[in-house]
Amino acid sequence: MLRASVRGWRPERLRSLLVMTLFVLGGSVVVMGLSDVTSAAPPKGEAKVAKAKEETLPKWPDAPKLTLVTKSSDPQELSQLTEMVSTINKLNEAKWKENKIVPSRYADDFEFIRRASLDILGRIAKPEEIRAFLKDPKDKRRSMLINRLLDSDEYPRHWSNLWANWLLSRAGVFGRGTYHEYLATWLEDQFGQNKPYTDIVKGLIAAKGENNDTEKGGAAANFILAHLGENVPPAQRGEEGQFQMVPITARITRIFLGTQVQCAQCHDHPFYSNIKQEHFWGVNAFLRQVVREGQPPQMGRMMAFGKLTLKDDENAVKDPMVFYEKRNGVILTAKAEFLPSGEEKRGARLPVEVSGVRRREKLADFVIDHPQFPKAIVNRMWGVFFGRGFVNPIDDFNDQNQPSNPELLEELSARFKHYNYDFKKLIRWICNSNAYNLSCVANKTNDKPEQEALFSRMIMKSMSPEQLFESLMVATKAEAAESKDGKKKLKDQWLGTLISNFGDDEGNEVNFNGTVVQALLMMNGKDINEAISRKDKGAVALAIKNRSEQAAIQELYLTALNRLPTAREVSVIVSQFRFRDPRLTMNDYKNPNRRYEDLFWALLNSNEFLLNH
C-alpha cells in the first residue's frame, strides 16, 4: 500500500492505490484527488464567462450574524466586549476601504473551530468537540466556543509552552530539558490564574531563588539564568559583577518592548534615532549585581540538570554603572538608566540608594511603565492569531518599521492597559472580531503579499512543532500518549528529532516551516503508523466501527481535517476503494481496514492538516 511504498522509498510505487496521490512540491506535502492531477482547457464559451468573472470586482461579503457571549451575566462585561470588538471591526474596515480592499469570505464553522482550537489550545479540535459546537445556537456558538477554550486546562499549558520557547528558545541547555520545564510549570500557573501580564513580567525580571522552585517563583529565574553571557574575570567582579549580562539585556527589551537594542551594543541604533549606545549599557547596568550559584550542564556531555540559584550581590557594583567601548576605542561609562521614550533624550534613572534585587525590581517597573510596553505585547499577541503583527517582525519596532494600522494598535494597547493587562480579555476581543473570522482564501483585491499587513484575510500559518505533535496525538489517539509519562517521553523524542531538523538553533523567533525532511518524518514515523493501524482504540478502528463506508470516510475527515468531505471527495474515494491493482497480493486485501488506514495517513500528510488556516 501507499504507506509501505513511501517507507521503502521506491519512486515507481509512489502512487495511491486507493484514493490520493502525494507529491512533494517545494518542501510541502500536497494532497489532491486523482482527478485533480490533470486538467484540460475549458471550452471557449466557458473561458469567456471565466474572463468576465475575473473582470468583476468581488463583492463585500456579508458578515456572519454573531452574538457575543460572556461567561458572567454582568452587563458591563458584555458592553465592554461589544465595544472592543466593534472598535476592531471599524478600524480594520476603515483600512480596507481606504486601500480599496474587499475582505475575503468568512470562514465556515468547521474552519473556525479548527483555527481557534489551534490558536488557543495548541491542537486541532476533537470530533466530539465539533459536534458539541455545532449543537450550540448558530449565532452564539463561536463566542461560546472561545469562552470554553479559555476555560480549558489546556489553555494555560499551551501558552506556557509558547512563552517558555520565546523566553528560553528551543536550543541549548535551557531550551530543552528540566530547566525549560521548570519555567513552563511556573508560567502555566500564572496563565492558569489569569495573572496580569505586568505581574508575569515582574516575576521574570526580578526573579530570585532556586530555579527548581515552581511554587515560590524561583523557577522564573530560569529566564535570566539562561542569558547571563560571558563570565567577568574574578579580579574585576567587585567592580563589574559576575557576568556581562549582555544577552539578557537584549532579551528583556526585545521581548517586552519589541525593541532590538542589541543593535546599539557597539554603536548608536541604526534605525531608532533616539536610542544610543549608552542606552544599551544603561539598561545593562541594572543587571550587574546578579550572581549564579551552581553550574548548568555542558552541552555535548551528560545532561545532569543540577539546581541553580539566582541571587544579587549588594557588595558588587555598588556604583550602578558599567564600562563600554566606542567603536573608536574610547572607554566610557554608562549609569543605570532606562530607554528613553518618544522624542526624549534621557530615560528613567536608577536612584542611587537602590541596590541588590531592588535594582531589577526598578528595572521591571521601568519596563512596565514604558509607553512601548503595551504596544509590544498587543502586537505580539496579534501576531500569534494572525500570522504577523501590525509591526512585522513582531519584536522590531523602529523608525523605519511603522505599524500597518497604528490607530488600531494604539486603541488596543490603551484598552489592554486599562483593563489590567488581562490576557483572556484581549484574546476574546481578537477572536470575536470579523478579521479573525475571515477565510484564508484570497480574492483579486487582497492577494498580494504586501496586503497581508491589513488583515483582510487570514494568513496561513505553519503549525509549530508542539502544535503538530499535539494535533497528531489527538487525531491518531496514539497509545503511547495515553499516560502522562508516556506522552512526555514520546513528545521529547519526537520533538528532539523534529527540532534538530527544523528548529531555530540561535533562539530567534522564526516561523516553523515544513520541508521535504518533515514530510518524510511524518510519512515514515513509526509511532504515527502504529497509531493509525491499532485494531482497538486507534482513530481508524473507532471511525469505521459500526459505520457505513460513507460515514466512516466522513469521520476520518472530521478527525484529521476537522471538516466533512465534499460530495466530490466522497465520490472519488469510494470509486478508488473499488479499484484493484494487479501488483497487490492477496495479503494486501485481507486487511479490510487497510484502505481506511491509507486514506487517514494521506490526510495527515496533507497541507490542509499541516497548516493552520
Overview of the molecule:
This protein is mainly alpha-helical and 613 residues long. Among the domains are: 2-40 and 462-612, no CATH class; 172-370, no CATH class. The chain has 28 helices and 9 strands. The strands form 4 sheets. A 3-stranded antiparallel beta sheet has the order 3-5-4, with no helix packed on it. A hairpin with a 2-residue loop joins strand 1 (20-25) and strand 2. Helix 3 packs antiparallel against helix 17 (406-418) and helix 22 (526-533) packs across helix 27 (594-604). The longest helix is centred in the first third of the chain and has 24 residues, at 75-98. It is globular.
Topology of helices and strands:
Layout: H1 2-8, E1 20-25, E2 28-33, H2 44-55, H3 75-98, H4 109-121, H5 127-135, H6 141-151, H7 154-168, H8 172-175, H9 178-192, H10 197-205, E3 209-210, H11 222-225, H12 237-240, H13 246-257, H14 277-284, E4 290-293, E5 309-312, E6 321-325, E7 331-335, H15 357-369, H16 372-386, H17 406-418, H18 423-431, E8 461-462, H19 465-476, H20 484-502, H21 516-524, H22 526-533, H23 539-544, H24 549-561, H25 567-577, H26 586-590, H27 594-604, H28 607-610, E9 611-612
Antiparallel strand pairs: 1-2, 3-5, 4-5, 6-7, 8-9
